[in-house]
Specification:
heterotrimer, A alpha/beta (263), B alpha/beta (392), C alpha/beta (323), B: 392 residues, alpha/beta, Fumarate Reductase Iron-sulfur Protein, Chain B, domain 2, 4-stranded parallel sheet, 3-stranded parallel sheet, 17 helices, 7 strands, C: 323 residues, Rossmann fold, 8 helices, 17 strands, 29% strand, elongated
Chain lengths: 263, 392, 323
Amino acid sequence: MNLAVFVKQVPDTAEADLVVAADGRSVRTGDAPLQLNEWDRFALEEAVLWKERTGGALTAFLVGPEEHEDALRRCLAVGADRAVRVWDPALPGQGPCAVARVLRAAVGDEPYDLFLCGAQAADDGFGLVGPLLAGELGIPSATLVNRLELQDGRVRCTRELEAGWGEVVDLDLPALVTIQTGINEPRYVSILGIRKARKKPIDLLGLGDVGLDDRRVGEAGSRLRVEAFAPPPAGREAEFLEGPPDAVARQVVDLLREKGGVL
Amino acid sequence: MARLADIDGNPVAERYELTACLQCGRCTGGCPVGLRSPLNSRRLLYEAVVREDGDALVARDEVWDCTACRTCSDRCPRELDPAAVIREIRTLKIEGGRIPTTAMDALESTLKHGNPWGRSRRRRTQWAEGLPVPSVEDGQESDRLWFVGCTPAYDPRCQAMARALARLFHAAGYAYTTLGTEEVCCGSEVLRLGELGLFEELLETNREALQGLEIREVVTTSPHCLTAFRTDYGLEIPVRHASQAVADLLDAGRLPLVRQAPLRVAFHDPCYLGRQSGVYDAPRRVLAAVPGVELVEFDRCRERSLCCEGGGGRMWLEGLGEGERNAQRRVRDAADLGVDAVVTACPFCLLTLEDARKTTGLEDTLEIVDLAELAARALDDPADGPGEEERS
Amino acid sequence: MSVWTVVEHRAGAMRDVTADLLARAGGLDAGPVTAVVLAGPGEADGLVSGLPPGAHRVAVAEHPDLAGFNGAAWAAVLAALARREVPAVILGAHSAAGADWAPALAALLDAPVVTDAVDLAWEDGALTAQRSVYGGKLHARVRLAPASTTVATVRPGGADAPLPAGTAAVDRVEVQVPSGLGKRFVEWVQEAAGSVDIAQADVLVSVGRGIGDAESVEVAEALAEALGATVSCSRPVVDLGWLPKERQVGVSGKTVKPKVYLALGISGAFQHVTAMKDAGCIIAVNKDPKAPIFRTAHYGIVGDLFKVVPALIKAVREARGTA
């Protein structure tokens, strides 16, 4: 079984202070470390599990600069046989449609059976690249998959819906699935493992290698453009309770009495 | 000295000469988690000899219960090293990707943020707000480095340890510097969890920092950092624990502890300070110098101290389930001794004993206090200003 | 010029987000609003009669292959209809369904597409959208290129009141669903109801990833016990296996409206917040003063929950006289 997984390296913004540049058009993530997008971790683990079960081959793809290569090293460390990075000076600032086009070109004519990617990215959360890529490849897709069963020539997916519902769909292979968190337990990738993976090469492709015209990618090829970043609107600002824990606890008890009819 | 295991190479038995094992059981007999965990060093060594492939060993999840206290290795009549075998099995598990999620998070955090607590590097010096703590980032150099440590830097309860120590050093006019936000984890727990690759990276980073700054002496807040620098890194320069530094300052008459801090206390010897580093007297010299402090020794003190179960990466691993935890036993013993407080000198001991104090309902009758915190109470001007920890 | 709203329904029942969509569609000022209903044979009538106000016209398409839900079938049918009528904007919900059909539709039409828009505006023949990014820490305004048809999905909630109802003309349209889509709906599944129904609780003590590990959930359980409350959680806690799925508050879990919601170590991601924001009194504890939860909570405590919660347990027990 020939598998492909698409990954993205994103900043871990949990603790970081995000600073909007003066022109409002970009964000400085400061000292926020980069990490493999959380949804892609699950997708990668799922891809490796299916590779192990079917005895197949796995290729990992990433669109990004050299600083993002760690994501591919992680894929190689976990069991990918091949890693491909696509980058070109024309690419920064591109929207999801353009990313999908680049990935489609990078996949080329290689006959894959199943393509996997995370359901969305932690930074922009579009959830678009996967299904748009499926469109480019001309194959069926299912999003938000939390359960996968490979059967003869097809894959049975359970899609995660709202409020505890699920939707079971069958896709004919080749197909693309976008993976929801919680589908599996991603394994740990040790530093030694990543170091060993450094010995495996990462194929680097430019636009010319994949036969793409730079008018179809990058900002020029995107029909979605970020005009400005800004802090979110204030919304309801919580009233902060101050003081040491004991004092705060007493204030909470008062609130519980007043508002909750408790105590 | 840490050894990089050759994962694809020799079987565990050969590497540790386990055929010499007598199966006497002294190791298991001294294990602090033996009663509540399936972890059994004697059986593990037998398995490693009889079954030479890693599969059966790697399946043993009980290796995550080990606190790396090294009682087993210390007691072995043949000088074998069961503690290292357990760690080796952890390494095999890690290379296979199977590790409890909480430990995974701690390791990944250490790689990303330089500390296992998931906090950003930028915040590493927030504990020192308002205190005169010199840092290389402010251009303050010295050939003595105070290695603060991740837990004293980030954990709200343990920050009081660091603050107290800073005040003691300041009162004594002690010359030192710190690495500020550039300080990264010493790797002690990373190594004991079995993540050798990450440990190596931390070792490199810290060695370079020490060399670059021409440091000639290191003082650590935590006995775990002490063990890392002294034993695991094999540093040639002297590495001392804060209790030793403070004891020496007291002996030299440089630290005026004048205010009364009346308290009847027992001292809990941390495994990594006592048994593993041989430091028993320095903390006691400090206690003797605090006016009003009366020391009552635990029956299990010094070499026989009861492991609090905070080491060996256990701060990030789940507990052993039912039954009384060692830390709970310890605080109950303290209550039986009739002391007001248990004093300790390790951030993990501090946290586990504090926890135990709450879960045994001894919150209102027993205090857990760090050695430096207690000593600082006797300083002429103990008022800490903003951030003084309330005792609860 | 017209705006289409693709009606959301599941297993015969209209989903609330449809009202949202219709209100937003009207608010765009990009032409009259058509509500598009795609359904299996005989399913549409109930949906049409239950349609919220806001549509000037209702287009109904029934087909056996539209029974259940099949994102590819929906996209194919919508694409065929869109090529005929060329709506300026096709609006859907940023929901599990929308995540499936909207991108596929955009691919078929080669249309610009934006998802999860918090706000939308139609200016000079092009769509601009406000989106929440970086886990809710920032907003981004994006502009889509002008095109004859643009596809957009909107984040549920936050729309203004719907436009007054008029009588909408109902059009039944004939549609084909191409064979060879390679995707087939099999069935709906529902999680077995657990032993606990968090939606019934008056007071919820809810934990997020900040609780740290499975063992520490005990601290929340102790508080819940002291309060006579129920423990719930956010998604990551379930993903990590610390609590069972039946305790999850969130879009993919349960929506709750307790009198009091205590959020411990919960960052405040949209998928969680949207499912508890209507609670009577929300009190959040988080060590990050910038955590998005503080924009939903009524009261906030910036601090270490392992200090605050034990203090709270003590205070509650004292208040109860059970200290």
